[in-house]
Amino acid sequence: MGKENQPVKGDVVEKAARDRLENRGVTVEDIGHIVYALQHPYAEDLTISECIDSVDAVLMKREIQHAILVGVELDCLAEKQQLSAPLQALVESDEGLFGVDETIALGSVFGFGSIAVTTFGYLDKEKTGVIRDLDRASDRVNTFLDDLVCSIAANASARLAHRIRDKQEGKAKKEMKIREDEELIG
């Protein structure tokens, strides 16, 4: 322990978080399809590519990356029976009254406003797309991961909703870029 603590470089953390998602069977495209389903009714010219780009932008946020690393690690430890009792049973069974999984995921939603918070609640309840697959998987523990995917999709959807409105209002690309840069902090 006596070593100096060096901060972990951001690109290392981002790659680790993205790798964790992919290793657990979740792609940026999977999440992009959820975002598309959420936002297409409000923007008929929306493309799946724009939705995937929004997911990519959300995955650049450190807070999201940290939540992914913690949540997926706990799921993996539960799969290996490496958590102490009674936490092992709570995580492994995705106990209904165990809300820590939602708490971690919800904590990473607040950066994109109330629309992201309400969308997170909707996705957590409806379990669409890959979220449903994760929730129903019997061969893996996805107690944290399904909620984290809800969070990523809710953030990407809210981010797009704000951009769609900015375009409708004729905001200059420069102003939209300033907003984008501010969102990526944290």
Please give a structural write-up.
This protein is mainly alpha-helical and 186 residues long. Helix content is 67%, strand content 0%. The chain has helices spanning 10-23, 28-39, 48-58, 62-79, 87-93, 100-107, 114-126, 130-136, 145-168, 173-183. The mean pLDDT is 93.
Name the features.
186 residues; 10 helices; 0% strand
Helix content: 55-70%
Encode the helix/strand succession as letters: HHHHHHHHHH
The chain-level structural class is: mainly alpha
Structure summary, number of beta strands:
0
User: What does the average pLDDT come to?
Assistant: 93
Shape: globular
Task: Provide the fold topology.
Layout: H1 10-23, H2 28-39, H3 48-58, H4 62-79, H5 87-93, H6 100-107, H7 114-126, H8 130-136, H9 145-168, H10 173-183
In short:
The chain has 186 residues and is an all-alpha fold. It contains ten helices and no strands.
